[in-house]
Design brief:
Oligomer: heterodimer
Strand order of the largest sheet of chain A: 1-2-3-5-4
CATH superfamily of chain B: STAS domain
Radius of gyration of chain B: 14 Å
Shape of chain A: globular
Number of strands of chain B: 6
CATH architecture of chain B: 2-Layer Sandwich
Largest sheet of chain A: 5 strands, antiparallel
Helix content of chain A: 40-55%
Structural class of chain A: alpha+beta
Order of helices and strands of chain A: HEHHEEHHHEE
Number of helices of chain B: 3
Chain lengths: 173, 129
């Protein structure tokens, strides 16, 4: 990247009011570090209730990247937190196998179309369900994100090469 | 003393004492490996039902818990519910900060899942995430 490109990147980060941007290998250690940074930033905002929502969404999003990123050829993930108006958008993205993305998409469609009360019911049922989905949270993480968001979750699947898909999940708080 | 695990910045303090039985879990919960952390806790709770001896008081004071810890917490509550089913008196107090809607709602969710437990949700003053 040359200087004009770097300046352009900085301008893009500034224009989009980027609070946090990371792309690379997502590890447990990284999560702890970013969590501390985010906490410090949120404490400054002085809105405890909302800070807790943002923190919770961030943690589940990053944990999804850790659990579902491993074993893949390109196990890096993207974490992006931006401000839009008075809202915070938390985006988490990674590359997933196309076969896995179909299952994920089905699940997201269900969550996307559900109202808050239905999501809470799905969540309650998910608390006891230990094997329905991959990962230690076994499907509860996406519901946690949906539950804490002020708007329905948004997502995108973009084909990379026929076998892999770039996935991004966005939550608004 | 049945079990005492000191708090870390990502795991809660767990205090489990006898005469009378008192189980307390307090703090934040997002361990790197949930089964390593909660395995012994679940085992010790489950062992209560083998030889029931008197009432059990449960105190949960959480400030943050991730989704995989919630699964483990569910297993702990299953153990608590089993103890109640032996005919023992069980009392659960779920405490959260008055500004913490997430933890309060989670308390309601557990109460909903274990409707036969004497389950009380309390809110108290305090701050910070």
């Amino acid at each position: 990247m040359d200087f004009p490109q770097a300046i352009q990147l900085r301008a893009t980060l500034r224009e989009n009011r980027v609070i946090m941007a990371y792309n690379g290998t997502v590890t447990d250690e990284l999560m702890l570090m970013l969590a501390d940074m985010l906490k410090a930033r949120l404490v400054a905002n002085n809105d405890t209730k909302r800070s807790k929502l943002i923190f919770s969404v961030f943690m589940e999003g990053v944990q999804n990247l850790i659990w579902h990123g491993n074993g893949h050829e390109d196990n890096s993930g993207m974490i992006l937190i931006t401000e839009v108006g008075s809202e915070i958008i938390v985006m988490c993205g990674n590359r997933v196998a196309k076969s896995k993305s179909e299952v994920l998409k089905e699940r997201l469609i269900k969550i996307e179309g559900a109202d808050k009360e239905t999501i809470r019911q799905m969540y309650r049922e998910g608390m006891s369900n230990s094997s329905a989905h991959e990962g230690p949270g076994a499907g509860l993480g996406l519901l946690e994100i949906a539950r804490r968001s002020s708007q329905p979750i948004r997502y995108s699947f973009q084909d990379v090469d026929g076998t892999n898909v770039d996935f991004i999940l966005a939550a608004t708080i | 003393m049945i079990l005492h695990i000191a708090a870390t910045d990502r795991t809660p303090e767990i205090l489990f004492t006898e005469n009378p039985f008192h189980f307390k879990l307090a703090g934040e919960s997002f361990p790197e490996d949930v089964s390593v952390f909660y395995g012994p806790v679940i085992t010790s709770i489950n062992s209560l039902s083998v030889a029931p001896q008197g009432p059990l008081r449960v105190e949960m004071v959480l400030t943050y818990i991730n989704s995989s810890s919630i699964k483990a917490m569910y297993r702990i509550f299953e153990g608590i519910e089993s103890y109640r089913k032996t005919g023992s008196v069980v009392n659960v107090v779920w405490k959260s900060d008055k500004d913490d809607d997430i933890m309060q709602e989670l308390g309601e969710d557990f109460k909903d899942r274990f409707p036969e437990l004497d389950f009380n949700i309390e809110q108290h003053d305090g701050s910070s995430i």
